[in-house]
Design goal:
By secondary structure, the chain is an alpha+beta fold. It is 70% helix and 8% strand.
Length: 305
């Protein structure tokens, strides 16, 4: 097969169906940009999970005098020194516990003033209204239930709270957004495939005279199909290149510059350039193979010799 003939036929096909080729490029670019974006979102969520789950604590809040009057869990009164010593001793014996930090009422009051000093409620609070607590760092954040089972409802304990539950709600929201992006991506891929099939068939119909002559002289089916398959692959590859450009530009302007989220949201551990660059070859390969395979199967019956 002469490469010059194939290349010339590709150029002819792209020029004859310029509008539909442009539609294929745009649809492939958008669908693969969403595909790459969903992969990067998954990486980002996993990175955030690893970063934040390593920092979450389980908090055992102890009863104070105010709780003894209003909270059923503290009906037996405020926590005593013996009860605090007993709780701490039991925590020290547990294998799942990595570190225990005690927070007094004065410490809790200072932390509250630092975080919510502008709140109208802050001016009316006093240190004796705050709760003492034990902040527990677990070796495995998934073992929260071990602490809850051991201390929830115990004398002197007002409640046992797991910060991981708050993070789970956040990550659930992020995962939901990611699946929504994947659903849109799947729809865009279907649209792109339909456009590719129609573009290839229109191109084949417009060159039916040439293909008929090639049949008469004994050309093989693959020889006839090759220009159309390459035409679809080239259009797809252009769309894939545009999609890669979208991802690189988005990473550069949203995280590093422009919005500069890496500095404005320094509590979030953003994915690095390595995560982006490793996705680009996959996107390019998909943009090349997907249109080529769609064109091949679309033409099997149409140009069958």
């Amino acid at each position: 097969m002469r490469a010059q003939f194939v290349l010339s036929e590709i150029g002819v096909g792209l020029r004859r169906n310029l509008t539909m080729t442009f539609a294929v490029v745009v649809s492939v670019a958008l669908s693969l940009a969403l595909f790459g974006g969903s992969l990067l979102m998954s990486d980002q969520v996993n990175t955030m999970k690893g970063y934040w789950y390593d920092k979450v604590n389980v908090s055992i809040f102890l009863c104070n005098k105010s709780d003894a009057e209003s909270d059923p869990n503290c009906a037996k009164g405020a926590v005593t020194e013996d009860q605090k010593k007993s709780i701490l001793a039991d925590l020290d014996k547990m294998d799942v516990v990595q570190k225990v930090t005690y927070e007094s009422q004065d410490d809790a009051y200072k932390h509250y003033k630092q975080q919510f000093g502008d709140s109208p409620l802050a001016s009316s609070l006093t240190p004796d209204q705050m709760q003492e607590s034990y902040r527990i760092k677990l070796k495995d954040p998934q073992k929260y239930q071990v602490i809850a089972t051991a201390f929830d409802g115990r004398d002197g304990v007002q409640s046992v709270q797991d910060q991981k539950g708050i993070l789970d709600n956040l990550f659930g929201l992020l995962n939901g957004m990611n699946w929504a992006a994947r659903a849109i991506m799947a729809l865009m891929l279907v649209v792109a495939l339909m456009l590719i099939v129609n573009t290839v068939r229109v191109s084949a119909f417009s060159r039916r005279r040439e293909t008929g002559i090639m049949r008469l002289v004994g050309a093989s089916g693959f020889y006839i199909q090759a220009p159309f398959i390459m035409e679809a692959a080239v259009a797809g590859l252009i769309g894939g290149t545009v999609a890669c450009g979208f991802l690189v530009i988005a990473r550069y302007f949203i995280i590093d510059h422009g919005l500069d989220l890496s500095h404005k949201l320094n509590l979030i551990n953003f994915i690095g350039w390595d995560a982006v660059l490793t996705k680009l070859p996959l996107i390019l390969a998909t943009s090349l193979l997907m249109p080529a395979m769609a064109a091949f199967f679309a033409l099997r019956k149409y140009l069958k010799v």
